[in-house]
Amino acid sequence: VLPKFTRLTTLNLSRNDLGVEGIRLLAPILQHLVSLTCLDLCANEIGVEAMTILAPILQNLTSLHLLNLS
User: Is-contact 50 23, C-beta < 8 A?
Assistant: First the structure.
């Protein structure tokens, strides 16, 4: 569903316990959200493995101004 929302500017998925598996599922969707300016993924147990998955996608989200991973 989310790839259809290419004009989405804010996505708050904080406190959803995504972990590595959740990030693995979310990553292919994020690449379609090219208008995203704010992404909140705080309190999701995102460690090194999850960031390894996210990093290449985040590089291509050139409109992204705020990323919360706390």
Answer: yes
pLDDT tens digits for range 28-40: 999 999 999 999 9
Rounded Cα distance between 17 and 50, Å, is 12
Percent of the chain beyond pLDDT 70? 96
| Residue 36: Cβ-neighbour burial (10 angstroms; 0-12, 13-18, 19+) | buried
Residue 5 to residue 47: CA distance in whole angstroms? 27
Determine the Cα–Cα distance for residues 28 and 17; give it in Å rounded to an integer. Answer: 18
